[in-house]
């Protein structure tokens, strides 16, 4: 099992705070992955990353979209015994 380093509890993070994490971050043992979309990452977060996380066996994948009038949360759940989301 590969584990990401434990980071101190904080209310706010920036990309610079994560500088020492392995690239790419291992996801094989994750139970949940969460992405917050930006104008340049919507398609990648909604489709491309969903395929990567599903193939890695991540049980649940959430995509938060703050770009619309109302913030939306889309949840993808891993199909039974599968490597794709329902």
UniProtKB/TrEMBL annotation:
<dbReference type="InterPro" id="IPR011335">
    <property type="entry name" value="Restrct_endonuc-II-like"/>
</dbReference>
<keyword id="KW-0540">Nuclease</keyword>
<feature type="domain" description="Putative restriction endonuclease">
    <location>
        <begin position="19"/>
        <end position="73"/>
    </location>
</feature>
<keyword id="KW-0378">Hydrolase</keyword>
<keyword id="KW-0255">Endonuclease</keyword>
<dbReference type="GO" id="GO:0004519">
    <property type="term" value="F:endonuclease activity"/>
</dbReference>
<dbReference type="InterPro" id="IPR008538">
    <property type="entry name" value="Uma2"/>
</dbReference>
<protein>
    <submittedName>
        <fullName>Putative restriction endonuclease</fullName>
    </submittedName>
</protein>
<dbReference type="InterPro" id="IPR012296">
    <property type="entry name" value="Nuclease_put_TT1808"/>
</dbReference>
<dbReference type="Pfam" id="PF05685">
    <property type="entry name" value="Uma2"/>
</dbReference>
